[in-house]
Amino acid sequence: MVDPAAVPDADAAPAARAEAAADAVVRTFGGRALGLPGTHLARVQAPAPPAAGLRRLVPAGPWHYWWQAHYLEALLDRAERLQAAGRAREAAAALRMSRRLARGIAVRNGLRWTNSFYDDMAWLALATHRLGALGGGAGTPRQLTAALVSAHTPELGGGLWWNRDRNYKNTAATGPAALHFARLGERRRAQELVDWLRGTLQDPKSGLFLDGIRIRGTEPALDRAVYSYNQGPVLGALLELGGSANLAAAADLVEAVAVNLAGPDGVLRSHDGGDGGLFTGILARYLAAAAVDPRLPDGPRTAAADLLHATADALWAGRGSLDGRPVFARHAGRDTDAEQPPGTAVGLSTQLQAWLVFEAAARAAGGGISRRP
C-alpha cells in the first residue's frame, strides 16, 4: 500500500486526491505521439511491453481512440480544478497538455478526426468542444459533428447508429451525441435524441437506460444490458437542456443510479478492465454535474454527491503503488495489490476511471454539497 504521507493531506482533501491521481496517470502513461514535439498521448498499459522500430515512438498497445477522448476530459477537469483553486500557472500547463493531446490524437489516428464508431466520435466531439470553450483550441472539428448528424436517421424511430455498419442503435452513441448537440445550441435535435432514448431504451422498471436496439429478422430487438456509463451522458444531456420535464427526469435518473448501480455501502458498481474499466468514471463526471446543479432538488444532489464520495473513499482506501505513485483497483472497495499484484501490467482505463472519480468528487465537494451523516 502507498504511504499516505506520500500525498500530503490527500485523505482529508478531495482535490489533493484528484491531483495525486492526475499526476500518476500523466507520469505513468503519458508520452509523445510518434515522438513528435508538441504532441501528447497515453499508452494503454504500464509497464509498456517491449517494442522495436517505429513502435517505440507510439505509446504502446492497440489504438483506443475513445480512451484518449476521456483522457482529454480528465485533463480539462484538472485545468478547471486548478483554475478554481487560484493555481493559474498549473492550470495553464494542464490546458497546454490538453491541446497537445488533441493534436496527438489526430496524429495517431492517421491525421484525421473520425473513425468507424459514432460513440467514439461523440466522446471526442464533447472533449474538443470543451477544450475550445476553455480557450485551448478551435472547438469540435466539423468532421465530427457532421458524422454524428449523418448517424441520426429515422430507422428504428430515431437515435444514432453505433458504427458505420448501421445495424445497431444504442445509448452509447445517442447519449453523448445529444449532449454535444445541446452544447452546440442545436436544442431541437438534442431533445429529439433524448426523447427517443426515454421512449425506446429506458427500462420502465429500473429507470435505467438499456444498451441498444437492433433489427433481428423483421422485428426490433432490445439489448437489455445495463452499463453505468450509458446513464452518464443522458444525465448530462437532460441537465444541459433544462426545463422542468428534463430536470425531473434527471432527478429520477440519479435516484435510479443510486438504487440500481451502487452497493449497500453506496459505492458505484464497476465493470472490470479493458473498455469497461472506464465506464464508472464516465458516469461519475455527470453525477458531479448533478451534484452541483442548483436547479435540482437537494435529495438527488446529495445522492449524487454521496455516490461520488463513497466511491472515491473506497478507491483511495484500496490504493497500491506503481513506481512510487498511487495505483487504483478496477473495482472500488477492493485492495489494489490483491487485485493487481505488484509487477503485473496496469491498464490505462482503470487508472483513468479512478482519476475521473476523484475529479468528480472534488467538484461535488467544491460545490458545497455535504455528505449525509
From TrEMBL:
<dbReference type="GO" id="GO:0016787">
    <property type="term" value="F:hydrolase activity"/>
</dbReference>
<dbReference type="InterPro" id="IPR005198">
    <property type="entry name" value="Glyco_hydro_76"/>
</dbReference>
<keyword id="KW-0378">Hydrolase</keyword>
<dbReference type="Pfam" id="PF03663">
    <property type="entry name" value="Glyco_hydro_76"/>
</dbReference>
<dbReference type="InterPro" id="IPR008928">
    <property type="entry name" value="6-hairpin_glycosidase_sf"/>
</dbReference>
<protein>
    <submittedName>
        <fullName>Glycosyl hydrolase family 76</fullName>
    </submittedName>
</protein>
<dbReference type="InterPro" id="IPR053169">
    <property type="entry name" value="MUG_Protein"/>
</dbReference>
<dbReference type="GO" id="GO:0005975">
    <property type="term" value="P:carbohydrate metabolic process"/>
</dbReference>
